[in-house]
Amino acid sequence: MSGLTTRILIIRGNGCLTDFMYKLNTLYNLCQIIPAEPTFMSNPIAIIGAGLSGLSAANTLHAAGYSVQLFDKSRGSGGRMSSKRSGFGDLDLGAQYFTARDADFVRAVSHWQQQGWVERWSPQIYQYREGQLSPSPDHQPRWVGTPRMSALTRGLLGSLPVRFECRICEIFRGDQHWQLLDAEGNLHGPFSHVLVAAPAAQASALLAAAPALAAQAASTAMEPVWAVALGFEHALPTSLEACFVQDSPLAWIARNTSKPGRSMPDSWVLHASSQWTREHLDLPASNVIDLLTAAFERVLGQALPPVDASLAQRWLYARPAQPQDLRALCDPALGLFACGDWCLAGRVEGAWLSGQQAAREIIASIGK
Ligand code: FAD
Ligand code: NAI
Known about the structure:
Elements: E1 10-12, H1 15-28, E2 32-34, E3 45-48, H2 52-63, E4 68-71, E5 84-86, E6 89-91, H3 103-115, E7 118-120, E8 125-129, E9 132-135, E10 143-145, H4 151-157, E11 162-163, E12 168-173, E13 178-182, E14 187-191, E15 193-196, H5 200-206, H6 211-218, E16 222-232, E17 242-245, E18 250-255, E19 266-272, H7 274-279, H8 285-300, E20 309-320, E21 329-331, E22 336-338, H9 348-367
Parallel strand pairs: 1-2, 3-4, 3-15, 4-11, 8-17, 15-22
Antiparallel strand pairs: 5-6, 7-10, 8-9, 12-13, 13-14, 16-19, 16-20, 17-18, 18-19, 21-22
């Protein structure tokens, strides 16, 4: 390289090219890089939603040298993979565990495991059908964030720029860039591209600038789920740690404390079926807790000791009613994109894969 170090190569660029050249320059000191003219790509990419799909895209865009700015209406990252702090420990009220089948996702999970963000969870699995409870062991690897589900998205967020408690209400485009309006009336921008990484029902309003994308999101029905957590001072006398439930108001039971890294008293998470939730959507939380606790007793076939603590959370947009094969929604000419679990199957793996696809589409659209 010694002959090259005497030459000065002037590069005007932006995005990944400039980032790549900076790295090359650090190694070989061979060129002088001057900042790009203000162009379309000198602005960051806005990502609305710091759930897994938004963070999946954010990490890939960041690694490729693009700057991103995340927004989330909640107080922290994770969306439906978030965990709730309570007097009886951290509770995973949304996603319970995830499986990895796609080869890229398997590699990502292995990396997350090395980072200490996720661990295998191997519960004693039961199933409940037609009034019968029976063990139902299998060899499926299942993963959870540790010491709580939200540890994964916290790890993925790292030091990426994010604004929490910022609900974006409108996205609009000027000549060359996008601006976002939040619920408090603040404007954010300019941005070169916008990626909407929110559940379909919330995404459709934000995608109004691209009617075809908005219509696709609007036509995706999402199912609700009531989740209840129960805390007991003394461990319940059962070996059951997870249960797939049918023929009951419940669809799922998990002993939250059987997941790795959870200490604290015995805590349980119950998920109602989507059908039961639809039928009891507006029931007060205390009634939901009573009804689902009674269903839990019926599944276990034993009376429960007094519950020491309980809470309920209603997920209005828990999962898409049907799997789809959209992967991500794209309007490259406008610079508007959407991703989320609803573009594939309503699972953690689908959310991550959809975010990956959106990032690839954004990068490809910049290259054109
Ligand atoms: P989300 O996690 O919903 O993230 C979207 C984010 O966008 C949220 O943080 C939200 O606050 C934010 N947002 C929305 N609108 C706006 C706005 N206007 N402005 C700013 N921010 C906004 N999957 C599994 O694989 N295994 C399971 O066991 C499992 N169990 C589940 C149980 C329940 C009760 C629920 C609800 C889901 C479960 N899932 C499970 C599904 C899994 O949680 C989701 O597939 C995945 O977390 C979706 O990620 P996402 O990024 O697509 O969406
Ligand atoms: P998975 O392969 O463990 O489970 C898929 C389905 O197979 C289960 O729902 C269950 O019906 C059945 N099953 C698996 N193992 C079983 C066993 N040992 N005994 C009896 N039945 C068994 O996981 P996958 O495919 O990653 O799905 C994730 C989980 O997330 C599923 O349980 C799914 O229902 C749940 N989910 C829940 C949502 C909600 O809102 N409650 C939203 C999205 C996913």
